[in-house]
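Shift notes (night). Ran Tryptophan synthase alpha chain while the centrifuge was going.
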Amino acid sequence: MHAADAFAKTKAEGRAALVGYLPAGYPTLADSIKAVDIMIDHGADMIELGLPYSDPVMDGPAIQKAADQALAGGFRTRQVFEVTEAVAGRVPILVMTYWNLVERYGVDRFARDFAAAGGAGLITPDLIPDEAGEWIEASDAYGLDRVFLVAPSSTEERIVSTVAACRGFVYAQSVMGVTGARAATSAVAPALVERTRRHTDLPIGVGLGVRSGDQAAEIGAYGDAVIVGSAIVNCYLDAPDIPTGHQRLAELTADLAEGVRR
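Came back to this:
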């Protein structure tokens, strides 16, 4: 399954897609698989698996803590394929990763192994299309989506070149700075989506900061996908035990899913 499959469904239903993010291997390898199943069962249309990394420059404190815990638990890059394979087939599964992890594994090898596991594509926050020749070649060879980011600081020229290289959807990073749940959504996000829409027919996903169904409804009114990460991770970080975290995740996902369906 690819991102286009999810967007065909949500477009037919006249709503935005809900994309849930969780680092693979967090809170444990088995529980990250269970968490993905919970998100899908409670209304997530796509899943974004984070690839834990020791130097996550874009991630806020919640995702950094979760990634550190996954790495301390022995997580290795190849295990993202195990998680993908365990959950693939119900909704599209994308991996969000810093680029040097893919380079270290081998770009063609990563694309091959991820496609074989049933993955849909990659979201690459620190890779720009100008430097993505090897990835563009590998993603074409294995039929994978490639999602690049635009930001409020992006020039028109940068937006044009970024959307031209994307396949699946475009990721609109709605705030400048690191990830994290916020009390209010970004005021500049609607303008960024509008600027991006002038240059592409691809769906536009809006990420960074959503933590409630009300915020999901607000963003779903102008974005094609609502991407939620830190609030999902916080279900486990703030819980006394993993079963409680699973319960909180179920409740949050249901609330977010209701939000995008308003």
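The radius of gyration is 17 Å. Residues 176-184 have pLDDT under 50 and may be disordered.
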